[in-house]
Write a structure and sequence with these properties.
It is built from 11 helices and 8 strands. A 4-stranded parallel β-sheet has the order 6-4-7-8, with helices on both faces. Strands 1-3 form a two-stranded parallel ribbon. Helix 4 (124-130) packs parallel to helix 11 and helix 5 (139-148) runs parallel beside helix 11. It has one domain: 3-Layer(aba) Sandwich (Rossmann fold). The protein has helices at 38-50, 59-65, 104-117, 124-130, 139-148, 160-165, 167-178, 184-193, 196-206, 228-231, 234-250, and strands at residues 2-4, 17-19, 22-24, 28-32, 74-76, 83-86, 96-101, 154-159.
């Protein structure tokens, strides 16, 4: 991906179409393994950066403002920096990164249900042991790759669990990282308008921009911390822990 560096400050730029292969060195990439709160963060950023009430806007607007690099071929540069969503492994052009991390056991529960909803009929045990059918790799491989930060990106790490516990404080960290100034009342307003419960109701009412997601299946499902405890079979949990134990322990999930 080509990264064209400019010296302009974060100001409103011409909203012209650009190829997703063309980014700016000031852009910020929201990176996370699938099912780590990536879509939720898109909505939070929509409110934080653009001041929109995300309860009232269609998903298509969020996708326009915070482009998903896996589904968009082109995007409109409304601001510099532009925020992008991606699940990619480290790339040299991703110079400023907000890395989202979530307990891998909860991730795999959610990912399993996601693949099932898409009609893939995955074998749960095989999924966690071999990684077959997972994108872009296994959970611990993604976390370890980004923790190593091989390209020296400017990066902050945000946990899904903290986002659930205190979204406004997390948004304050993002403001500090991105050079944004927002009053605490604004951060709380954004957080209140983008709770998991509101996201679920919004999906029930208007669905998502993604045309391949089945409308009769919930994309925003439980979203609970510790859901693996009553949803992950013992054999699957044991197999996942076997390959991911060092990463789980280092992140404080054990």
């Amino acid at each position: 991906m080509k990264a064209e560096c400019t010296s302009e400050s974060p100001i409103l730029a011409a909203a012209k179409l650009q190829c997703v292969s063309e980014t700016d060195c000031n852009d910020i990439f929201v990176v996370g393994y699938p099912k780590s709160g990536n879509t939720w963060m898109q909505y939070l950023l929509g409110g934080l950066i653009f001041g929109i009430d995300v309860r009232l806007v269609p998903d298509s607007l969020i996708q326009d403002l915070i482009p998903d690099l896996h589904s968009a071929r082109f995007y409109r540069r409304h601001l510099t920096p532009t925020f992008f969503k991606t699940h990619d492994l480290p790339q040299p052009q991703y110079r400023r990164v907000i890395y989202l991390v979530r307990d891998g056991r909860d991730v795999m529960v959610s990912y399993f249900h996601h693949l099932t909803a898409m009609g893939d009929s995955p074998e749960y045990l095989k999924l966690v042991t071999t990684g077959e059918g997972l994108f872009p790799c296994r959970w611990h491989e993604h976390v370890e790759a980004w923790t190593a930060n091989p390209h020296g990106a400017q990066m902050i790490t945000i946990s899904y669990e903290m986002l659930k516990r205190d979204s406004a404080t997390v948004l304050h960290r993002i403001c500090d990282f991105a050079g944004l100034e927002r009053e605490r009342s604004v951060l709380e307003w954004v957080a209140e308008n983008s709770t998991f419960e509101i996201m679920r109701k919004k999906e029930e009412k208007s669905g998502w921009q993604n045309p391949i997601w089945p409308r009769d299946k919930a994309f925003v499902r439980r979203g609970e911390v510790g859901s693996f405890k009553d949803e992950m079979p013992a054999a699957v949990l044991e197999a996942f822990a076997k390959v991911s134990m060092p990463t789980l322990r280092r992140l404080g999930y054990l």
